[in-house]
Design a protein that fits this description.
- GO terms for molecular function: GTP binding; GTPase activity.
- There is one protein chain.
- The chain is α/β, with parallel strands linked by helices and 327 residues long.
- It has a 7-stranded parallel beta sheet with strand order 3-2-4-1-5-6-7, with helices on both faces.
- Helix 10 links the parallel strand 6 and strand 7.
- Helix 1 crosses helix 3, helix 2 runs antiparallel to helix 7 and helix 13 packs antiparallel against helix 14.
- The structure holds guanosine-5'-diphosphate and magnesium ion.
- The site of guanosine-5'-diphosphate has 18 residues, from helix 4.
Length: 327
Protein backbone atom coordinates (compact mmCIF):
# COMPACT_ATOMS: atom_id res chain seq x y z
CA UNK A 1 0.00 0.00 0.00
CA UNK A 2 1.33 3.42 -0.96
CA UNK A 3 0.85 5.50 2.16
CA UNK A 4 1.67 8.85 0.56
CA UNK A 5 -0.94 8.21 -2.12
CA UNK A 6 -3.51 7.11 0.43
CA UNK A 7 -2.81 10.27 2.40
CA UNK A 8 -3.32 12.48 -0.67
CA UNK A 9 -6.60 10.77 -1.46
CA UNK A 10 -7.89 11.18 2.08
CA UNK A 11 -7.00 14.87 2.01
CA UNK A 12 -9.03 15.21 -1.17
CA UNK A 13 -11.99 13.60 0.64
CA UNK A 14 -11.97 10.30 -1.23
CA UNK A 15 -14.43 8.18 0.74
CA UNK A 16 -13.05 4.85 -0.38
CA UNK A 17 -9.57 5.89 0.65
CA UNK A 18 -10.97 6.94 4.02
CA UNK A 19 -12.70 3.58 4.45
CA UNK A 20 -9.51 1.75 3.54
CA UNK A 21 -7.50 3.82 5.99
CA UNK A 22 -9.94 3.02 8.79
CA UNK A 23 -9.57 -0.66 7.97
CA UNK A 24 -5.82 -0.17 8.19
CA UNK A 25 -5.94 1.41 11.67
CA UNK A 26 -8.25 -1.38 12.81
CA UNK A 27 -5.77 -4.06 11.81
CA UNK A 28 -3.77 -5.81 14.49
CA UNK A 29 -0.91 -6.76 12.16
CA UNK A 30 2.46 -5.24 12.99
CA UNK A 31 3.21 -4.12 9.41
CA UNK A 32 -0.25 -2.52 9.17
CA UNK A 33 0.36 -0.76 12.48
CA UNK A 34 3.58 0.74 11.13
CA UNK A 35 1.77 1.94 7.98
CA UNK A 36 -1.09 3.33 10.03
CA UNK A 37 1.32 5.30 12.19
CA UNK A 38 3.06 6.66 9.10
CA UNK A 39 -0.28 7.66 7.56
CA UNK A 40 -1.53 9.37 10.72
CA UNK A 41 1.74 11.29 11.01
CA UNK A 42 1.44 12.51 7.43
CA UNK A 43 -2.16 13.59 7.93
CA UNK A 44 -1.53 15.25 11.29
CA UNK A 45 0.67 17.84 9.57
CA UNK A 46 -2.43 19.30 7.96
CA UNK A 47 -4.03 20.03 11.32
CA UNK A 48 -7.59 19.74 10.09
CA UNK A 49 -10.11 19.71 12.89
CA UNK A 50 -13.75 18.77 13.12
CA UNK A 51 -16.28 19.32 15.85
CA UNK A 52 -16.31 15.97 17.61
CA UNK A 53 -19.59 15.08 19.25
CA UNK A 54 -19.90 12.00 21.45
CA UNK A 55 -23.35 10.47 21.81
CA UNK A 56 -24.40 7.87 24.33
CA UNK A 57 -27.64 6.20 25.26
CA UNK A 58 -29.09 2.80 26.07
CA UNK A 59 -30.40 0.57 23.26
CA UNK A 60 -33.80 1.70 22.00
CA UNK A 61 -33.48 5.30 23.17
CA UNK A 62 -33.28 6.48 19.57
CA UNK A 63 -29.59 7.00 18.82
CA UNK A 64 -29.77 5.74 15.25
CA UNK A 65 -32.93 7.72 14.55
CA UNK A 66 -31.34 10.82 16.08
CA UNK A 67 -28.13 10.46 14.09
CA UNK A 68 -30.12 10.13 10.88
CA UNK A 69 -32.26 13.23 11.52
CA UNK A 70 -29.50 15.32 13.05
CA UNK A 71 -26.98 14.26 10.41
CA UNK A 72 -29.38 15.12 7.57
CA UNK A 73 -30.08 18.51 9.13
CA UNK A 74 -26.35 19.22 9.17
CA UNK A 75 -25.72 18.05 5.61
CA UNK A 76 -28.64 20.21 4.45
CA UNK A 77 -26.75 23.15 5.94
CA UNK A 78 -23.81 22.21 3.75
CA UNK A 79 -21.79 20.51 6.48
CA UNK A 80 -20.01 17.21 6.01
CA UNK A 81 -20.77 14.63 8.67
CA UNK A 82 -18.97 11.44 9.68
CA UNK A 83 -20.50 8.87 12.00
CA UNK A 84 -18.41 6.36 13.93
CA UNK A 85 -19.30 3.87 16.60
CA UNK A 86 -17.47 2.77 19.72
CA UNK A 87 -18.84 -0.57 20.70
CA UNK A 88 -16.73 -2.83 22.87
CA UNK A 89 -19.62 -5.28 23.11
CA UNK A 90 -19.97 -5.85 19.38
CA UNK A 91 -17.76 -8.93 19.46
CA UNK A 92 -20.12 -10.50 21.95
CA UNK A 93 -23.38 -9.41 20.42
CA UNK A 94 -22.09 -10.30 16.96
CA UNK A 95 -23.32 -7.12 15.38
CA UNK A 96 -22.47 -3.47 15.30
CA UNK A 97 -24.62 -0.85 16.91
CA UNK A 98 -24.75 0.86 13.58
CA UNK A 99 -25.82 -2.40 11.99
CA UNK A 100 -29.36 -1.09 11.83
CA UNK A 101 -28.46 0.96 8.78
CA UNK A 102 -32.11 0.89 7.79
CA UNK A 103 -32.65 3.63 10.35
CA UNK A 104 -29.93 5.62 8.67
CA UNK A 105 -30.80 4.80 5.13
CA UNK A 106 -31.08 8.36 3.92
CA UNK A 107 -27.98 9.54 5.72
CA UNK A 108 -25.93 6.61 4.44
CA UNK A 109 -26.86 7.59 0.86
CA UNK A 110 -26.00 11.24 1.43
CA UNK A 111 -22.77 12.13 -0.40
CA UNK A 112 -21.88 14.52 2.43
CA UNK A 113 -22.11 11.84 5.07
CA UNK A 114 -19.79 8.99 5.91
CA UNK A 115 -20.98 6.19 8.17
CA UNK A 116 -18.62 3.63 9.58
CA UNK A 117 -20.07 0.74 11.56
CA UNK A 118 -18.09 -0.53 14.51
CA UNK A 119 -15.68 -3.41 13.99
CA UNK A 120 -15.73 -6.39 16.27
CA UNK A 121 -12.89 -6.06 18.68
CA UNK A 122 -12.67 -7.53 22.07
CA UNK A 123 -10.51 -5.31 24.16
CA UNK A 124 -11.37 -1.75 25.03
CA UNK A 125 -7.78 -0.65 24.56
CA UNK A 126 -7.93 -1.70 20.91
CA UNK A 127 -11.35 -0.13 20.46
CA UNK A 128 -10.14 3.13 21.95
CA UNK A 129 -7.11 3.42 19.72
CA UNK A 130 -9.04 2.47 16.62
CA UNK A 131 -11.77 5.01 17.40
CA UNK A 132 -9.34 7.78 18.13
CA UNK A 133 -7.46 7.15 14.92
CA UNK A 134 -10.65 6.86 12.89
CA UNK A 135 -11.71 10.28 14.20
CA UNK A 136 -8.35 11.72 13.13
CA UNK A 137 -8.80 10.19 9.66
CA UNK A 138 -12.27 11.71 9.30
CA UNK A 139 -10.91 15.11 10.32
CA UNK A 140 -8.16 14.84 7.73
CA UNK A 141 -10.79 13.94 5.12
CA UNK A 142 -12.40 17.29 5.81
CA UNK A 143 -15.51 16.33 7.75
CA UNK A 144 -16.90 19.23 9.73
CA UNK A 145 -18.69 17.20 12.35
CA UNK A 146 -17.75 13.74 13.62
CA UNK A 147 -20.47 11.97 15.59
CA UNK A 148 -19.19 9.17 17.79
CA UNK A 149 -21.90 6.85 19.02
CA UNK A 150 -21.76 4.41 21.90
CA UNK A 151 -24.20 2.31 23.87
CA UNK A 152 -24.19 2.84 27.58
CA UNK A 153 -21.93 0.01 28.59
CA UNK A 154 -19.54 0.91 31.38
CA UNK A 155 -16.23 2.23 30.20
CA UNK A 156 -17.15 2.98 26.60
CA UNK A 157 -18.52 6.39 27.63
CA UNK A 158 -15.13 7.28 29.01
CA UNK A 159 -13.50 6.31 25.74
CA UNK A 160 -15.98 8.43 23.80
CA UNK A 161 -15.78 11.44 26.09
CA UNK A 162 -11.98 11.32 25.86
CA UNK A 163 -12.14 11.65 22.08
CA UNK A 164 -15.01 14.17 21.92
CA UNK A 165 -15.28 17.93 22.28
CA UNK A 166 -18.92 17.72 23.31
CA UNK A 167 -20.75 14.86 24.94
CA UNK A 168 -24.46 14.21 24.47
CA UNK A 169 -26.54 11.84 26.55
CA UNK A 170 -29.75 10.65 24.95
CA UNK A 171 -32.58 9.60 27.26
CA UNK A 172 -36.12 8.39 26.78
CA UNK A 173 -39.09 9.81 28.68
CA UNK A 174 -39.43 8.03 32.03
CA UNK A 175 -42.69 6.50 33.15
CA UNK A 176 -42.59 7.68 36.72
CA UNK A 177 -40.50 10.34 38.36
CA UNK A 178 -37.42 8.17 38.83
CA UNK A 179 -34.13 9.27 37.28
CA UNK A 180 -33.75 6.18 35.05
CA UNK A 181 -30.73 4.92 36.96
CA UNK A 182 -28.32 7.07 34.97
CA UNK A 183 -24.97 6.72 36.66
CA UNK A 184 -23.64 9.83 38.29
CA UNK A 185 -20.37 9.49 36.40
CA UNK A 186 -22.24 9.66 33.09
CA UNK A 187 -24.24 12.69 34.19
CA UNK A 188 -20.99 14.39 35.12
CA UNK A 189 -19.51 14.08 31.65
CA UNK A 190 -22.67 15.13 29.78
CA UNK A 191 -22.67 18.60 28.22
CA UNK A 192 -26.22 18.34 26.96
CA UNK A 193 -28.87 15.79 27.88
CA UNK A 194 -31.43 15.21 25.16
CA UNK A 195 -34.73 13.73 26.20
CA UNK A 196 -35.83 12.06 22.98
CA UNK A 197 -39.30 10.92 21.87
CA UNK A 198 -40.90 14.17 22.98
CA UNK A 199 -43.83 13.59 20.66
CA UNK A 200 -47.37 12.18 20.69
CA UNK A 201 -48.38 10.43 23.88
CA UNK A 202 -44.86 10.59 25.27
CA UNK A 203 -44.64 14.36 25.14
CA UNK A 204 -45.80 15.15 28.68
CA UNK A 205 -43.64 12.39 30.15
CA UNK A 206 -40.70 13.83 28.17
CA UNK A 207 -41.38 17.25 29.60
CA UNK A 208 -41.36 15.89 33.18
CA UNK A 209 -38.19 13.90 32.53
CA UNK A 210 -36.52 16.96 31.07
CA UNK A 211 -37.45 19.03 34.14
CA UNK A 212 -36.15 16.28 36.45
CA UNK A 213 -32.82 16.18 34.69
CA UNK A 214 -32.51 19.95 34.52
CA UNK A 215 -32.88 19.90 38.30
CA UNK A 216 -30.38 17.07 38.70
CA UNK A 217 -27.83 18.86 36.50
CA UNK A 218 -28.10 22.02 38.59
CA UNK A 219 -27.13 20.00 41.65
CA UNK A 220 -23.87 18.83 40.09
CA UNK A 221 -20.63 20.58 40.85
CA UNK A 222 -20.00 23.57 38.60
CA UNK A 223 -17.42 22.79 35.92
CA UNK A 224 -14.95 25.44 34.76
CA UNK A 225 -15.52 24.53 31.10
CA UNK A 226 -19.19 25.55 31.20
CA UNK A 227 -20.77 28.94 30.54
CA UNK A 228 -23.91 29.88 32.49
CA UNK A 229 -26.77 27.46 31.90
CA UNK A 230 -24.64 24.44 30.97
CA UNK A 231 -24.85 21.50 31.17
CA UNK A 232 -28.50 21.54 30.17
CA UNK A 233 -31.37 19.21 29.34
CA UNK A 234 -33.45 19.68 26.18
CA UNK A 235 -36.38 17.86 24.60
CA UNK A 236 -36.20 16.50 21.08
CA UNK A 237 -38.08 14.20 18.78
CA UNK A 238 -35.68 12.48 16.43
CA UNK A 239 -38.60 10.83 14.68
CA UNK A 240 -40.53 14.04 14.05
CA UNK A 241 -37.51 16.28 13.64
CA UNK A 242 -38.37 18.51 16.58
CA UNK A 243 -35.91 20.47 18.67
CA UNK A 244 -32.92 19.37 16.63
CA UNK A 245 -31.97 22.80 15.35
CA UNK A 246 -32.30 24.24 18.86
CA UNK A 247 -30.01 21.48 20.12
CA UNK A 248 -27.53 22.27 17.34
CA UNK A 249 -27.61 25.99 18.23
CA UNK A 250 -26.90 25.19 21.87
CA UNK A 251 -24.01 22.91 20.96
CA UNK A 252 -22.48 25.52 18.69
CA UNK A 253 -22.82 28.18 21.37
CA UNK A 254 -21.15 25.95 23.92
CA UNK A 255 -18.37 25.09 21.48
CA UNK A 256 -17.79 28.74 20.57
CA UNK A 257 -17.64 29.78 24.23
CA UNK A 258 -15.15 27.05 25.06
CA UNK A 259 -12.93 27.98 22.15
CA UNK A 260 -13.06 31.63 23.06
CA UNK A 261 -12.12 30.92 26.68
CA UNK A 262 -9.34 28.43 25.96
CA UNK A 263 -11.20 25.41 27.32
CA UNK A 264 -11.41 23.71 23.97
CA UNK A 265 -7.63 23.86 23.48
CA UNK A 266 -7.00 22.79 27.05
CA UNK A 267 -9.34 19.84 26.71
CA UNK A 268 -7.67 18.56 23.56
CA UNK A 269 -4.27 18.89 25.21
CA UNK A 270 -5.50 16.93 28.25
CA UNK A 271 -6.98 14.28 26.00
CA UNK A 272 -3.68 13.88 24.18
CA UNK A 273 -2.00 13.33 27.54
CA UNK A 274 -4.69 10.93 28.66
CA UNK A 275 -4.13 8.79 25.55
CA UNK A 276 -0.39 8.91 25.98
CA UNK A 277 -0.79 7.43 29.46
CA UNK A 278 -3.32 4.88 28.18
CA UNK A 279 -1.08 3.75 25.33
CA UNK A 280 1.76 3.33 27.76
CA UNK A 281 -0.39 1.35 30.16
CA UNK A 282 -1.72 -0.89 27.40
CA UNK A 283 1.77 -1.54 26.05
CA UNK A 284 3.07 -2.54 29.48
CA UNK A 285 0.03 -4.69 30.18
CA UNK A 286 0.30 -6.54 26.90
CA UNK A 287 3.94 -7.32 27.68
CA UNK A 288 3.01 -8.56 31.13
CA UNK A 289 0.45 -10.85 29.53
CA UNK A 290 2.82 -12.41 27.02
CA UNK A 291 3.53 -16.13 27.47
CA UNK A 292 7.18 -15.49 28.19
CA UNK A 293 6.42 -12.92 30.86
CA UNK A 294 3.78 -15.15 32.40
CA UNK A 295 6.37 -17.92 32.77
CA UNK A 296 8.74 -15.60 34.62
CA UNK A 297 5.96 -14.17 36.72
CA UNK A 298 4.62 -17.58 37.73
CA UNK A 299 8.07 -18.66 38.78
CA UNK A 300 8.54 -15.55 40.90
CA UNK A 301 5.04 -15.99 42.33
CA UNK A 302 6.02 -19.41 43.63
CA UNK A 303 9.10 -17.97 45.25
CA UNK A 304 6.94 -15.31 46.87
CA UNK A 305 4.57 -18.01 48.18
CA UNK A 306 7.40 -20.01 49.72
CA UNK A 307 8.85 -16.92 51.33
CA UNK A 308 12.06 -17.03 49.33
CA UNK A 309 11.53 -13.52 47.94
CA UNK A 310 9.41 -10.65 49.23
CA UNK A 311 6.51 -9.51 47.03
CA UNK A 312 8.02 -6.08 46.52
CA UNK A 313 11.39 -7.48 45.56
CA UNK A 314 9.78 -10.02 43.23
CA UNK A 315 7.91 -7.26 41.42
CA UNK A 316 11.16 -5.38 40.94
CA UNK A 317 12.88 -8.52 39.67
CA UNK A 318 10.05 -9.24 37.25
CA UNK A 319 10.20 -5.75 35.76
CA UNK A 320 13.97 -5.88 35.44
CA UNK A 321 13.92 -9.31 33.78
CA UNK A 322 11.16 -8.30 31.40
CA UNK A 323 13.13 -5.26 30.37
CA UNK A 324 9.84 -3.63 29.47
CA UNK A 325 9.82 -1.75 26.21
CA UNK A 326 6.96 -0.12 24.35
CA UNK A 327 6.06 -0.73 20.75
N1 LIG B 1 -41.94 8.25 19.26
C1 LIG B 1 -40.65 8.28 18.96
N2 LIG B 1 -40.01 7.13 18.72
C2 LIG B 1 -38.70 7.18 18.41
C3 LIG B 1 -37.99 8.40 18.35
N3 LIG B 1 -36.69 8.13 18.05
C4 LIG B 1 -36.60 6.80 17.91
N4 LIG B 1 -37.80 6.22 18.13
C5 LIG B 1 -38.12 4.80 18.04
O1 LIG B 1 -37.43 4.08 19.05
C6 LIG B 1 -37.00 2.82 18.56
C7 LIG B 1 -35.51 2.66 18.73
O2 LIG B 1 -34.85 3.62 17.93
P1 LIG B 1 -33.31 3.47 17.48
O3 LIG B 1 -32.97 4.71 16.76
O4 LIG B 1 -33.09 2.20 16.77
O5 LIG B 1 -32.61 3.41 18.91
P2 LIG B 1 -31.09 3.02 19.28
O6 LIG B 1 -31.11 1.61 19.71
O7 LIG B 1 -30.73 3.93 20.41
O8 LIG B 1 -30.24 3.25 18.07
C8 LIG B 1 -37.46 2.75 17.11
O9 LIG B 1 -38.67 2.04 17.03
C9 LIG B 1 -37.64 4.20 16.73
O10 LIG B 1 -38.59 4.39 15.71
C10 LIG B 1 -38.71 9.61 18.60
O11 LIG B 1 -38.20 10.74 18.57
N5 LIG B 1 -40.04 9.48 18.91
MG1 LIG C 1 -29.00 2.05 16.98
Amino acid sequence: MDIAELSTKILSSDRRALARAITLVESGRADHRAQATELLDLLAQHKRQALRIGLSGTPGVGKSTFIESFGLMLTEQGLRVAVLAVDPSSARSGGSILGDKTRMERLSRDPNAFIRPSPSQTNLGGVARRSREAVALCEAAGYDVVLIETVGVGQSETVVSEISDLFLLLLAPAGGDELQGVKRGIMEIADVILVNKADGELKSAASRTCADYSGALRLLRKRPQDPAGFPKALMVSALEDQGLSIAWDELQQLDAWRREHGHWQQRRAEQAQYWFHEELRQAVLSQLNSAEAQGEINQLAQQVASGEVSSVKAAGLALARLNITTG
